[in-house]
Amino acid sequence: MNLLPISIVSFLFFLCLHSPFIAAATDDDLPTAYSVLQSFNFPVGILPKGVVSYDLDESTGKFHAYFNKSCSFALQGSYQLDYKSTISGYISENKLTKLTGVKVKVLFLWLNIVEVVRNGDELEFSVGITSANFAIDEFYESPQCGCGFDCDSIKENLGRNPFVSSV
């Protein structure tokens, strides 16, 4: 009776369990929603900070991104943005389509952003009836829920007591 094949199988099994080169896939191994955006040639800043999870059907491009709660903030100019706790749509190279869960306030109207297309160094945001183009370098950093990109000045103002003189 030859025990050599059993020994080899046992050794290989042990090696697989303890090898640093073979690891089981976990949620920690998944790329972040922000790195997935980059893999489709989008800057991370089209998503605010705080995505807690996402799912992506790689065969169709259908995705969902999840926040703990809805997320609103203002950007320079007159734009107010609102992200629901779940946003969804389809992603492909340079294109986000059939978006749901993202709104922009223009003047007094809230409009759904339904598509984002990258054209070279510009991003075109469509609300269906019209669209607006922005330079891509405005989206290299993700805004923060509540304060957008102006969080430092909000923290400064919160730390000041208007009833106490600094003189």
Description:
The protein has helices spanning 4-18, 33-39, 151-159; strands at residues 51-56, 62-67, 71-74, 80-92, 95-106, 109-112, 115-119, 122-126, 131-135. It has three helices and nine strands, in the order H-H-E-E-E-E-E-E-E-E-E-H. A hairpin with a 5-residue loop joins strand 1 and strand 2. The chain has one domain (24-159): at5g01610, DUF538 DOMAIN (Roll), CATH 2.30.240. With 167 residues, it is of the alpha+beta class.
Features:
alpha+beta; DUF538; disordered C terminus; disordered N terminus; 19% helix; 3 helices; At5g01610-like; globular; 167 residues; 9-stranded antiparallel β-sheet; 9 strands; at5g01610, DUF538 DOMAIN
